[in-house]
Structure formats: C-alpha cells, structure tokens
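Contributing new records

If you add data, match the layout below exactly. Sequence lines come first and carry their own label; structure lines follow with theirs. Keep one chain per record. Anything else will be rejected by the validation script.
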Amino acid sequence: MSRELLEKLQIRVYAVALALGACLGLWRPDFGATLEGLISPIIAVLLYGMFAQIPLLHLRAAFANRRFTLALLTVNFIAVPTFVWILTRFLPSHPPLLLGVYLVLLTPCIDYVIVFTHLGRGNARLILAATPLLLLVQMLLLPIYLWFFMGEQAAQIITAGPFLQAFLILIVLPLGLALVTEYWAKRSPGGTRWLAATAWLPVPFMAVTLFLVIASQIGRVEAFFPLVCRIVPVYVVFMVIMPLIARAAAHIFHLDTEAGRALAFSAGTRNSLVVLPLALALPDTWILAAAAIMTQTLVELIGELFYIRVVPAVIFPDVKNL
C-alpha cells in the first residue's frame, strides 16, 4: 500500500479503530482501562510524525501572524465561554456533571488538534506556534471561569501540573525530536530517508490513539450512561456551531483560508486528555466529572472525522481570502 492510498483511506481506518476500541472497551472494560497509560506516549509519537512533516526551521513566520493570534484568543477565550454558558443552561444543575462539562469545553486543545488541522488542510504551523500561548492563557483563565460559573469550590481544583506535564511530553519532546530530524535530513542521506519514513506515522498512530482512548474510557462513560446522555446533545451542538463562529471570526480578522481552517479546528477541539487528570484526582463523589470529560472525547473524536472533510470543503473552501 502506498502512503497516498493510506491517507485516502484514513477515514475508514479511523472508523474501524473507533469500532474496535468500543468493542474491546465494552467487552473487557477492566482490560481496556489498563490501556490508558499508553495514550500519552502514542500521541507523542503521532505528534512527532506530524511535526516532522512541517518545515519547523521556517516556523518563525507563524509567530508573526498577529491577526490569527488575536482571532484565536478571541474565539477560544471570549466566544467559547459565552457559548458554553448558554449551552449549560439546558443541563441539570448537577455540580459534578457541570464541572466536567466546564473543564473540557473551556480549555482549547494543545496536542492532537495540530494533527487534525493538518489532516483538514489547515495551517498546522499557526496552531503549533500558538500552543504555548494557549496553554498559558487557559491555565490563567480556567479558575476564573470556574469561579464565575460554579463558585470558589470548583475553582480551587485547578493546578498547573497536568497542563505543564502534557505540554512537555506531548509538545516539547516531539517538537525537539522533529527539529533534530529536520536538521539531520538537511545534512545526511540517512536523515533524508528517515524523514521520508516519518511521513507514514500520522495515520496509523492516529488510528491507534483513537483505539486506545475509546477502549480505555468507554467503560467509565457506560457506568453513568443515563446522565451522560443528557450532555451528548450539548457536545454535538458545540461541535456544529464552533466552526461557524470561527468562520465569522476569520472574516472579521481577514484570515486566509488555511488560517481560517486552523481557527475552526482550534475552536471545536478541546483539551480532554489534559484536563482528565484533574477530574480523576477529585474525590469519588465528583467522579461523574471524569465521565463527562470522556463523553466529550468520544463525541469529539467522531466529530473530527467529519471536521477533516467538512471544514475544508464547506466551511472554508479554497478561495483566496475570507
């Protein structure tokens, strides 16, 4: 099989991975839960493979795109919280459930959003360059949002540890290895061959990531199935509306098409794998927060399969300017 054919078949590959993960997680939930520790290392390899395909030595230009940065901050930290507050008016007043929803929807993704942006023909370099800023701002603002939405008790659970750990393992380490790979490829035929080989990594490792996430977490969601069913429509509406809000923001800030796609993926993709440790560290009475986060992950992973087709074809088709 050629790499081009594999990329053409990627949606089917991901769908199979999701189905297999769901089957394993429902059939052997205890075994599935043991796979959770593999998620971060696999995502790190996935991101390394994707970073290696980006000309990182020319990344400086991405930092200079101030319009994109302003649009990114406006959408993620003004539009999203406002829309989330409206959406949660339709949920039951159940603090653990609401906490999980707020934790996951108020934090923009800093890891696999880069991969999905690349698959959706967006400017992944812009998202990559913005990850430190997104991380810092969400760490600062999340306690404020939680205090505003739920009160002081919820705001006190936020710590910097999980955010910084995820940033180091999922961004800094793969990025550093990708830079070494690119430097090596410019100076050695062996490096060139290795760089070409890394182009095979994104699709299979994305499939493995989807499989592991579903297999390890679907049992937790099943345990609270009646309640989590109440939040699924909220997550679906969020994923449907956020690209449209990003489309309007891209027009206001005069972004080009690829930057607009990147904005849409950032707006619709949340930081579930980073905030999940926060929820798992809570007392047992708050365990529903973790189930709410993982429900969003399941909805999001399926939604991303639509995003990588719909965003470039419908929301941000190929035109010169927005």
